[in-house]
Amino acid sequence: MTIPTGGKFVIPEVVVTQFHLREGDIVSDFGAGSGFFLPALSQVVGESGKVYACEIQRALVDKIGDTVLSEQLSNVHPLWCDLEEVNGIKIANEELDVAILINTLFQIEDKDTAVQEMGRTLRKGGKFFVVDWTESFAGMGPMPDNVIQANETEVLFERNGFVLERDFPAGDHHYGLAFRKI
To answer: How far apart are CA 99 and CA 117, in angstroms?
Structure first.
């Protein structure tokens, strides 16, 4: 999507190609919001795959549920989750092949607990993709003091059981980092 100033924002169909998802993968979009990425994720993992849409705002969980019905995303499962609580995610230990956190990290207060809790649901060797803001832009995204830089995200994930595999393009105002659970 192009905005008037010429910048490009995260485009789900483009960014999802960086996740190298396969048919049958079990994926969670942590902090799914209104479900912006769900149609693209649903399509890539196919009927044999599963997409959990984890969100703390109950109104957004309900909205995702409506989207699942209206767009016939039968492999998408909306879940109310609290990323900052131990066992606050209603997904079994090591169930996921892939975890995704998009435009959410800057909003989390207890980042270590959240990364540990999300990591609990990811199998050993599983992939964790983080996309977040590089800056506060045109009144959108985090306030300048709340931007979490890519190097800070790398340190956070590495101290919580992940290794950085690569970075990837995620739009003009975002960074993308791919981690693997060790």
So the answer is: 11
pTM value is 0.92
The end-to-end CA distance of the chain, in Å, is 35
Alpha-carbon span 173 to 76, nearest angstrom: 28
Domains defined along the chain, listed by start: 12-181 (3.40.50.150)
Q: Which residues contact 114 (CB under 8 A, 6 or more apart)?
A: 83, 84, 108
Q: Does the pLDDT value for residue 2 go beyond 50? A: no
Instruction: Collect all residues with Cβ–Cβ distance below 8 Å to 72 and sequence separation of at least 6.
Output: none
Structure tokens at 132: 């977040």
Q: Which of these ranges, 7-11, 74-78, 156-160, has the smallest mean pLDDT?
A: 7-11
The tokens describing 152, both together, are 């800070």
